[in-house]
Every structure is written in C-alpha cells, then in structure tokens.
Amino acid sequence: MPHAQRSRLSPTAGMLLVTLFWGGNFTATKLAFAEIEPLAFTALRFLLATLVLWAILRRVEPTPAPLPPGARTRLIWLGLVGNTLYQLCFIEGLARTSATKSALILAGMPAIVILATWLLGLETTSLRQRLAVLLATIGVVIVVTARGGSLDAGLTIGDLMLFGAIVTWAVYTLLMRQWKIPISSLRLTAWTMYTGTPGLVLLGIPQLARTDWQAVSWAGWGGMLYASLLSLVAAYILWNRGVAELGAARTVAFNTLVPLVATAIAMVGLGERPGVIHLVGGVLIVAGVLMTRQGGVPAEG
C-alpha cells in the first residue's frame, strides 16, 4: 500500500492508548520497585527508552533538517522540566504512596493546565471550565486526606511530591504548546529524552551500583520494559502529537480515564482497595475534568 494511503492512527485514538499505557504504568512500576530501587529503575528505564527512540528516529528520519533557530535551548528546557524534574517527583512520590492514590492525585493535572492556559492567555476558557477546576481541586483534596480501604491515609511526603509532578508536567505541556517547535512529534520526544535523561542517570548511579541485577525476576524486568517502551516511548510520542494537533486543554482531558484504568489494574495486580471517600474524590476529579472539555476555544497565535 502506498505510504500516502496507509491508515494513520487518529489523535483521539492515540490519546486513548496513552491513557491505557499510563494507567498500567502505576502497577508495573510498583511491581518493579519490589526489586529495583526507584532512582535505579528510573535511570535504567530512561536509558533504554532513549536508545530505542534514537534507533527509531534514525530509521524514520535518517537525514533530518537542522533544528530551527533557538530550538536546541528550548528542547533542553523541555527535557529538564518534562523528564528530569517530573520523573523525580513522580517516581519518588509513587514509591511513597499507593498506585491508586497516586493516579487519583495526578488526575487533577488537567484542571491545573486548564487554569494555567486561561491565566496566561494561551487558550480561552468558559466560566464552566473554571468552576470545573474548583470541583476537581476539591476532589484531589478529598483523596489526599481520605482514610479507608487498603490505601495509605492522610497527607504524606509522597503526596506532596506528586503535587510537584502535577506542576512540572503542566509547565512542560504549556511550554510545548506555547513554543510550538516545528519538528515532528517523534523528533521532539527523542530530543527531550536526550536532554532529560543525563540528570536522571547521574542521580541513579548510587542505586544502580548496589542493585543485585541477577536477582531481579521476570516481574521486575517486565515492569521495566512496560514502563520504558509503552509508558515512555509510545506514550510520549502520542502525547506530544496530541498536544500539537488537539491543543493542550483537549489533550490533558484524556487523563480523566487514567485513574479509572490505574485503579482497576491496581486492584487486580496489587490488591489495592480504595475506600468510599477515595471513590467520592475520584468522581469529583473526573467530573471536573470532563466539565473542562466544554466551552473552551483555542486562542489565536
């Protein structure tokens, strides 16, 4: 079949895959943490993902055009914020709290992006959307202070680190939306890996050195491969493409499904059981994020 006639995955279908990959990543990572320390896991995960992306990029774009003027500096910042800082907050936060609670907290991220795009004038928002942000925020507060089920109770250091992950990912998404670097989503993803991975590797060296890699089971390596190839390589390419083609606000709205997928998988894979109050908070978060999809119009420029 000619290249021009090949079916191309729609941005919407791509974002649905992202929610599946990211929903499963909480459980896959938790299983790996039983045998591999968090910073060692992250360092090896990003090294593997970077090598895979480099190989894919060499095959798809063997002779890429030079980067646009000023793009290199922006790509460095995107890599540091979207990979180095975000992953440190995410991994250390996830290591200190449950997979389900982590997913519910991060579900509030779309509301933060919606609010930020409005405050910065990047995209217009309706009163309905701004009220939705408040609703989702109330849901997050309920989740982090709730007690019950098999989930950890009360506000923890892990929860605070996950809030940091929300902020850094929101900044990453907004910078990418504002800068609109004119390169392919694959090349953009690869470059942010190139610039974000070195810091993670340096921080992970002590744990890498003391890990007994021969003792790591198939579950540990399976979690590593899932987190590297699906949650990083595939999901990041699809996410960057979604932001470029759908806009920041519409793209992050798909994260509504992540806590639902993550909770279902964590219940099966980790035996976690959210309490009723966690479910109430989750419903408020999902409802708020769904409301943010109503009435917003991308700003010109």
Which spans have pLDDT < 50 for at least 5 consecutive residues?
1-6, 295-301
The rounded Rg comes to 19 Å
Number of helices: 12
Largest sheet: 2 strands, antiparallel
Q: How many β strands by DSSP?
A: 2
SSE blueprint:
Elements: H1 11-33, H2 38-60, H3 71-95, H4 99-106, H5 109-119, E1 123-124, H6 127-145, H7 157-179, H8 185-210, H9 218-246, H10 248-253, H11 257-269, H12 276-292, E2 297-298
Antiparallel strand pairs: 1-2
Helix pairs in contact: 1-4, 1-9, 1-11, 2-8, 2-9, 3-7, 3-8, 4-11, 5-6, 5-7, 6-12, 8-9
Task: Give a summary of the structure in a few sentences.
Helix content is 74%, strand content 1%.
Question: How would you describe this protein?
Answer:
The protein is mainly α. The chain contains 12 helices and 2 strands; from the N terminus they run H-H-H-H-H-E-H-H-H-H-H-H-H-E. A two-stranded antiparallel sheet has the order 1-2. Helix 5 runs antiparallel to helix 6, helix 6 runs antiparallel to helix 12 and helix 8 runs antiparallel to helix 9. The N terminus and C terminus are likely disordered.
Throw out a few tags for this protein:
mainly alpha, 301 residues, 74% helix, single chain, 2 strands, disordered C terminus, disordered N terminus, two-stranded antiparallel ribbon
